[in-house]
Amino acid sequence: MMMLRNAKLLSLSAKFQPSSTEPPQNSRRTNITVGTTLSRRNLSKSSLLILLSTQTTLTPLLDFSKAQAEDTTINNPNPSNCGNRVPTTKAFIDVSIDGEPIGRIIIGLYGDDVPAGTARFTSIVSGKAGISYRRKEFVKIMPGYVQHGGIRSYGVDAERATAAVGTLQNLIEEWERGRRGAICNEIKAGSVGIVVRDPSIPPPKTKLVARNGKLAMEEEVVAVGPNGTEFVITAVDSPELEDSVLVIGKVLEGMGVVEKIREVKTVRDNTSSPYFRVAKVIGDKRAVVAERGFNRPYSKVLVTNCGLIESQTL
User: Fold this and answer.
1) What percent of the chain has pLDDT over 90?
2) Is this prediction's pTM over 0.85?
3) Spatial contact of 264 and 102, defined as CB atoms under 8 Å apart
4) Alpha-carbon distance 284 to 288, whole Å?
5) In this structure, how many other beta carbons lie within 10 angstroms of the beta carbon of residue 71?
6) Helix or strand or coil: residue 265?
7) How far apart are CA 283 and CA 213, in angstroms?
């Protein structure tokens, strides 16, 4: 029995023995590997030659792109003229917290650079418009800036503001010039600016309504945007505000008062809540109302008096 099994194994192994005319499998693999290695070497040499030959062609293109980038930086006047702005007018605001005076903030306004924004602010701070920031509150205290609520967007005050200082469009035009780099709109620590738009407000929603027995499409405005009377004072560099604020001046004296305002406790910002995020995405009005309350001070931070400082050296 054992001999028969060995004979079968020998016969089976004989079938798989390579023939004398064909090279062994191992030698074929060796040849293929060697061939592949040689072709890769040749390819590497060819690639190196191609790169060396095209270097003179690529270098001018790279230099041209670099020159374009340098031209873009030079053509943007924003970094160069920001330090050259000179205040032309002085204004002041006196502030109290819960009825306790905390000091005065003196602001220098850039009348030559942003005439529309400066005229609007001075007409309100002086009372020339028939309205004033006096007895109006700071409504938002953020880590980097404080925001005054301005004049409400409805009622007699709003009508007087529009009649005296015009619409918001002229401020938006100056803000757009700043975005293009025609004027400086960098927001550094101590900057004072008017809020011209609110990026957090969602776009209007289109809805189907029935009017006089007919269906019609109309836009539903979720929230009211700024009216050009709200202003901010920054405590640190705040480039994120450049999308919404037109810089009209800077704090000359009274940054200590701004720091005291920043120390006031505020309503906790809950925008990181997943429930709030979902409500904001689907356009729930309750989310918009809740967001208005975030970062509002618990104490009443009030402008007790304000006006212009006449004919003094700036």
Assistant:
1) 38
2) no
3) no
4) 7
5) 10
6) coil
7) 27
